[in-house]
Amino acid sequence: MLVKTHITKIGVTLFAVALFYGFIYMLSNSLFATRPATAVAVDASGKALLPSVDEAAMQSATAPAAAAPAPAAEAAAEPAEPAAPPPPAYVEVDAALITGDAKAGETYFGKTCKACHKIDGKNAIGPHLNGVIGRATATVEGFKYSKAMKAHVGNWTPERLDIYLVSPKAEVPGTKMSFAGIPDAADRANVIAYLYSLPR
Fold first, then answer.
1. For labelling alongside 197, which of 50, 54, 77, 168 has CA 20 to 30 A away?
2. Helical spans, DSSP H, in the chain
3. Integer CA distances (angstroms), 35 to 30, 32, 149, 154, 194, in order
4. Euclidean distance between CA atoms 164 and 157, whole angstroms
C-alpha cells in the first residue's frame, strides 16, 4: 500500500512538472517570438542595402482617396470669363456727323432701297429702317436675321453704316442682303442723312 502511494505521489509530481514546463514554453514563445530571417544585401562595410522607395509613389499610395479633388470641383472652381455686354439699343448720334443732303438721299432711297426696305415701321424683304441710325444691329423685332448679321454686333453709327453701304457682302460675309452697294461717297452720305431724318 505504501509503495502504491509513493508511486502515485511521483506520478502527480511528474505531471505537475510537465504542466509547469509546458506553461513556461508557451509563455516564452508568445513573449519572444521572432519572425523568420529575411535575406538583406549588405555593402562592403556591412551596412544593409535597403531598396530605394519613390517618396511620391509612396505618398500617392498611402494618401486617402478623399484627398484627391474631384475633376468637377476643379472645373467649378475656375472662374468663367464674363460675357461681353450687349450693345445699347440706341446710341445718340451727333448731328454734326451727318453731312449729306437728306432730300437727295430720299430720292436715291426711292430708286434703290425701297424695293427691300420700308420706312413705315413694317418689315419687308429687309428690316424696316425707321430709326436705323444709332440702333443696335440685328434688333428689329420680328425680322429673321442671318447668323452673319447677328454676329455683326454694335450700333449703326453714320461711320459704320457708310462702311457697310460700300459693299454689304464684303463688310458682313454671309449676309442675306444681296444689294451690291453704293460706291459713291456722296450718295452714301445723302442716304444716311435721309435715314437720320426718319423717326424712330
1. 168
2. 2-31, 55-62, 71-77, 102-112, 147-151, 158-166, 168-171, 185-197
3. 12, 10, 82, 82, 103
4. 10
Instruction: Give the residue from 111, 122, 112, 127 showing the smallest Cα distance to 176.
Output: 127
Q: Could you give the CA distance from residue 37 to residue 115 in angstroms, rounded to a whole number? A: 102
Q: Give the containing element (helix H, strand E) for 33.
A: none
What is the end-to-end Cα distance of the chain in Å, rounded?
Answer: 141
**Residue among 178, 170, 175, 185 nearest 137 (CA):** 175
Q: What's the pLDDT tens digit per position in 18-72?
A: 778 777 777 777 666 655 555 556 566 666 565 555 555 555 555 555 555 555 5
70: its cell numbers? 474631384
Written as one letter, the residue type at 119 is I
All three cell numbers of 55: 517618396
Whole-model pTM? 0.58
DSSP code, position 131: T
Per residue in 59-77, pLDDT (tens digit) is: 555 555 555 555 555 555 6
Q: Identify whether the C-beta of residue 70 lies closer than 8 Å to the C-beta of residue 156.
A: no
What is the Cα–Cα distance from 46 to 163, expressed in whole angstroms? 89
Cell (9 digits) for 51: 531598396
